[in-house]
Amino acid sequence: MPKLIKQGLTALLLAVLPVLPAHAGVCATDDTGQQVCLPAPAQRIAGLSPGASELLWSAGAGDQVVAVVAWSDYPPEAKTVASVGSHTRLDLEKLISLQPDLVIAWVTGNPQEQIQTIRNLGLPVFSIEPRDFEDVSSVIERLATLAGTEAEGWAEAERFRTGMAELAARYSDRAPVPVFYQVWDEPLMTVNNQHLIGKVIALCGGYNVFGELPRLVPRISDEAVLEANPEAILAGGMGEENRAWLDRWQNYSSLDATRVGNLFFVPPSLIQRPTPRMLQGSELFCQKLEIARGRR
């Protein structure tokens, strides 16, 4: 960051932020293992990803959110909050001018240089990266602790925890269905077994045909999909109602998934954000695999 810009941000920070007491009142450990302590529950919170903002509302802290980023569209109230750029490029001056007393960062989604600048300026940063279902509940509970909204947040965390356990009990032992999940179109991308969506596939009794690949979100080719020959293909697409990504696979009549009509759309926000709505998305995902089983 250029020296003059950094000096300007520092001056702005000193002008708008109050002096914090030395002793912390609430503490929580983030997903990087860093303990974040605040003198009192946060009252002005910035969510630097759509998922982070949604998790804050799930934790009961929606009224305390003063900054979000582009595509923060759920719940609808999030769309009325000031935007500070996108998760990949933050408007730091605007963020600081909103005087947050807690910033929720996305470990692998936000630019680390900008997150470090935020830390250097003295703002508390709590980094999140849920990698399994329990992590989603845990993040909600920790955010509720930092926001002082434990009653609502912990209840929502338990609702999600119980719901996912019920889905696992219902579907995880069903006859396996070989599945390809398309997370992106160009370049063509999927998920491995360590990805949260990969764990949804397993929960529903699916077999991820690309699950053993080393990258969390690997790039693949059409030829690789043809060779794997999944029995079902599921895709999120660009937007909540856009099924266009599935059109690609209609051109491959030799694919088992195409031959029997197992090309399924799942609204991306229900499955690609690590939030409680993943319960709804997982139930829909499991229902699609049940349809595939019924077509055998």
Automatic annotation (TrEMBL):
It comes from the Bacteria. The lineage of its organism: Bacteria, Pseudomonadati, Pseudomonadota, Gammaproteobacteria, Pseudomonadales. Keywords: Signal. InterPro entries: ABC_Transporter_SBP, ABC_transptr_periplasmic_BD, Vit_B12_bind_prot. GO terms for biological process: cellular response to iron ion. Residues 1-24 form the signal peptide. The keyword Signal applies. Residues 44-293 form the Fe/B12 periplasmic-binding domain. Pfam families: Peripla_BP_2 (PF01497). This is Iron complex transport system substrate-binding protein.
